[in-house]
Automatic annotation (TrEMBL):
InterPro entries: SoxW, TAT_signal, Thioredoxin-like_fold, Thioredoxin-like_sf. Residues 1-28 form the signal peptide. This is Thioredoxin-related protein. Residues 59-171 form the Thioredoxin-like fold domain. Keywords: Signal.
Amino acid sequence: MITRRRFASLAAAAGAGLLTASATRARAADGPKLNDDGLYEEPFFIQSFLDLGEDLAAATQRGRRFAIMWELKGCPYCKETHFVNFADPAIRDFVSGHFDILQLNLIGAREVTDFDGKAMEERELARRWGIRFTPTFMFFPETPEAVGGRPGNEAEVARMPGYFKPPHFLAMFHYVEDKAYEQGDFRGYLKRFLAG
């Protein structure tokens, strides 16, 4: 026989299960989707004509920072970045609220125009900039004037090569947003960030 108390606790558990399932479906609905290149895209990634100077200028105009995420089809750590790091609401909200992120394919063939005006395929740009790991995030100065017509690898203010666990990942985005690279390296900033 089911008592009222037992019935109430079962009903509450069922309701909590429905809420959890609903939240999971909501993340799946607005979460990363596979694109034609086999890369996961976040809904907040920017769509671009792949002229990096224009992308930086647009981000600056909106009061945001510009970053590039390099990925590769089948990369397990790229997938983890999307399904673990960006699944964390605190990370997703901070990154999407402060950064314009352009996704590039390490072996892609789309034509990209570097900050210095040279146009080349994504894979050539990756070689030119020394991208060896995926995912790799590159962060750029606040304004096109600060880039000064240099190629991206000479103009970047910070780089996150490879996968970073969520706390370190979020710390890197704060490091760039706070312009802490002007005062010191990421390691010292990370120590202070994690300490609280």
